[in-house]
Amino acid sequence: QLRSIVIQVVLATDMSMHFELLTQFQAKVVDASALCGLTSRQKWEAMDQAQKVLTIQIAMKVSDIGACALPIEQHMEWNSRMQEEFFKQGDRERAHGLPPSFLMDRRKPGVQNGKNQVGFFKFIVLPLMSAWVKVFPECQSMLNQAQANHKHWEFLASADLDAGGEELISLRASDKQ
């Protein structure tokens, strides 16, 4: 049974399952009347097996995008690393005669593009973390930081900047003056 749960949890990080899992979590855990008014520990103890597996799946998803809730400097560093990883995958795909996957083509805006990040935060990060915090309110600071990072990406998007561009470096320098 443990093997099955581990497989389910790992597969939950597949973004093609994101909206389905989040919808299930909302319906079966967040909105479960039997869990209302309980502490986080009491909620966990009151959950049935299916709710617990779903909660662990969501915990894995939250941890998978956890860099979105790091302080901005660390978040930007992880974002830069992820973009390079994605571009390397796109390079390998192209070398094998395949078209690069979404966000993995060096010739197109990547994950450090402000507009791409605004959408990712709006549709993936913030709804997921908001649902998580409804069940585990002690994680509110994580959501607060993700919201602050989202605002940072909104600024970059409004200025039509990528996170690593020369324009941003000069803007950061002028902010410090």
UniProtKB/TrEMBL annotation:
Indicate the segments annotated as coiled coil, or none if absent: none
Instruction: Give any single GO term for biological process.
Output: signal transduction
Q: Does the keyword Cell membrane apply?
A: no
UniProt-listed InterPro entries: PDEase_catalytic_dom (IPR002073), PDEase_catalytic_dom_sf (IPR036971)
Q: Which SUPFAM superfamilies did the record assign?
A: HD-domain/PDEase-like
Q: Which domain of life is it from?
A: Eukaryota
**Which residue numbers delimit the PDEase domain?**
1-160
Keywords, comma-separated and alphabetical: Hydrolase, Metal-binding
- Under the GO molecular function aspect, what terms does this record hold? 3',5'-cyclic-nucleotide phosphodiesterase activity; metal ion binding
Question: What is the name listed in the Swiss-Prot or TrEMBL entry for this protein?
Answer: PDEase domain-containing protein
Q: Which species is this UniProt entry from?
A: Tetraselmis chuii
